[in-house]
Amino acid sequence: MCAFLNRMDDGCHAAVIDCVPFLSIRDTLIRYHAANPFIDQVVSDIVGVYVVETLLSELVADSPPLQVYVKVVDLVQAMAGADEDPGQEPASLPVSQISDIFTSPSVALAVARHLQIEYGLSRYKQDPGLFTKHPEFYESAGLLMAQGAPLKPDSTSLLSFPGSLDKNTASLYRNFVAFTCSNMYESSL
Q: What is the C-alpha separation between 56 and 87, in angstroms, rounded?
């Protein structure tokens, strides 16, 4: 059997499906996409829209307690370089402007810590856009779909299967992998 396939009672499926932690979505992937030659893109669509919910008032001063959600990959991309200057004081929350969250690495890091994104799946939900793009997952939407307004940068990051590897795509993948590996290492200590 090919090393890229996993055996289940109901047949084989691509091993990349096992990277999806939400069982209901994983089961739907097996049911509808097990033989899909573009399964990597579908899994990228799922992983790329992990979000964490919060109240806007916790992040931005003088804001109402409006329910919002932030895409994890946008925060990871905005945090790039936050650890490079050890002399830099960590930012404090709330900040004065929403744009600071995505334009200042130290603010993005403070938001990520506040949202506890390093604890991963217990905090993650899915951007509602996933269920529009892939309606086959809608029956899983109940507890997994984020509620509220999206809080995002002017230019949002897409974690997708790259057609070609350009500088921006390489940077996005490098930052996301570094963040993921760092959290896996820290959680194993």
A: 29
Q: Which helix (H) or strand (E) holds 21?
A: none
Q: In this predicted model, what pLDDT tens digit does every residue of 72-98 receive, in sequence order?
A: 999 988 988 766 666 667 799 999 999
The model's pLDDT over 134-179, given as tens digits with 9 standing for 90+, comes to 999 999 889 899 999 999 998 876 665 556 666 776 676 666 666 6
Nearest to 126 by CA among 75, 52, 180, 67: 52
Rounded to the nearest angstrom, the gap between the alpha carbon of residue 59 and the centroid of all alpha carbons in its chain is 18
Q: Which two tokens stand for residue 33?
A: 């996409």
C-alpha torsion angle, residues 183, 184, 186, 189 (rounded to 10)? 170
Side-chain half-sphere exposure of 70, counting CA atoms within 13 A = 27
Query: For residues 62 and 46, what is the distance between their CA atoms, to the nearest angstrom?
Result: 33
pTM beyond 0.85: no
Dihedral over Cα of 38, 40, 46, 50: its sign: negative
Q: Which of 7-16, 53-62, 112-121 has the lowest mean pLDDT?
A: 7-16
Locate 138 and state its tokens.
Answer: 């809608």
Q: How far apart are CA 30 and CA 148, in angstroms?
A: 29
Task: Provide the pairing of β-strand 67-71 with 125-126.
Answer: unpaired
Q: What is the DSSP letter of 90?
A: P
